[in-house]
Amino acid sequence: MSEVRDPVHVDGEVIVSKKIGAYRHLTIAAPGVPERFRAGTFVVVTIPGHLLRRALWVHRVRESGAFGPTLDVVVDPRGSGTRLLASQPVGTRLAVTGPLGRAFALPKEPVACLLVGEGYAAAPLFPLAERLRERGCAVTLLLSAPDEAHLLSALEARRSARAVTVLTADGSVGQRGTVADEVEALVGRSRPDVVYAAGPKPVLHAVAAAAERAGVWSQVAVEIESPCGTGLCHGCPLPVMGEDGVERVVRACTEGPVVRGDRVRWDAL
Amino acid sequence: MGRAVNRDLPGPVMVASGCGGTGRELRAFVDLVGLDFATRSITLDARTGGLGPRLVEVPGGVVHAGGLPNPGLDHFLATELPWLVRAGARVFVSIAGATIGEYADLARRLSSAPGVAGIEVNLGAPDELSSGLFEVREPYHAASVIAAVRREIPADRPVLAKIRPDVSRVVEGARLCQEAGATAVVVGSPLPAALPDGREAGLGGPAVAPVVWRCVVEVRSALPDVPLIACGGVHDVASARRFLDAGAVAVQLGTALLHDPTTLARLRAQLQEDE
Q: The whole model's pTM is what?
């Protein structure tokens, strides 16, 4: 009964490991996963010695020679599991499940799109920008971070986006400032038809609020720790407002991670 | 002994309540046809469950306090149950209530729902008080719930009593539940524990396996005729075999599915080969 879009669980392999700034970029061969990937979906990996799994955003899907299509993921080594993952040498086997969750919805028409991301969690905006560019959409990208070390791939971004703004809180690269300070003005200037966001909760909230004030449709990729990633455990509660006006709590991994920004009950998150 | 006494009972491997999502999420990883599936616990009214974090990893296990999120009985009957039945699963609906009367209402409504293979009665959830559930302090509390449920369910339909793996009370609990009409006893619920912030929670995973094993040994020895289902730390053939060889009719897979959603398919195939 499996369908093309169903996730797969495979024995993967780390084939490249690179430290860029504060993050570790891993290229993983995981047969079947890249072929099913759509921007906004994610993978979960097994960490040796840990029962629960770690969810990772997919930064890029590309051809890696003999390995065929592979996944690039960005690891922020901030807990015991992610530190262990970041330290795995090339050749490490790891169980990969994915792609999981709902992807960003793409506009049917070549419209103007504003993409706002912060830190490693901005990763899914890169494959999204490529898909949008292929569709003829004018892409404006705002990338932000606390400092240069936590800024994700600003140079690569220039390939798919018409205009890129870089913001750091300490001013170490790009403009000094935060998404909350700048997003309103940028929505006004770039006059997008759709706004996409990926990053920590305050960033998503600021973007969703600015979009709503401008009467623009927004989609946000919410990051909540997902213990299993597959929807089995109901352990990643995301409070939303249903279309029917009823407050609900859905699973970030299954009904998300991408949801409409105006549906999230930010005060309850 | 004790295996395959009654094909109406689940076995040899089934999905533990609360670890199989709505069933749809498992479909990518295991064939649902003929799969014994315990649903997450269903209550009369919808419950949003607690806010995060709901699961915290500890060495060898997972501490969890979900607060029983579920869409409520009406929504479950209208959407999730028909989907599971169409997919071919053998559905054991786990039920939880605030009172004995609620358990009886749930059982009555489910007794006439098409495709329900049996009922699993959630007795003694580790976070029963904070979740507003009926408090199972004593084995006879569990037995009173079973008696109320049994009255509503046709005699040929299994009623599973899922009780606490409390070594000092488990034999008494199993005996009273069987006398009250339970077809089989599931040992057991997660061990009572607390999250780092102090909230009531349950501990599951390999860490609890030795406790469940002790319970199974004691119940088998004192009550060899009570069909027993083991739940706690099963993750491979060896851990499943130990319970089955000791006479359990089935094992439930819970935390193992969160770690690797393909565990069930693998275990099913390997146990079949052994037959």
A: 0.94
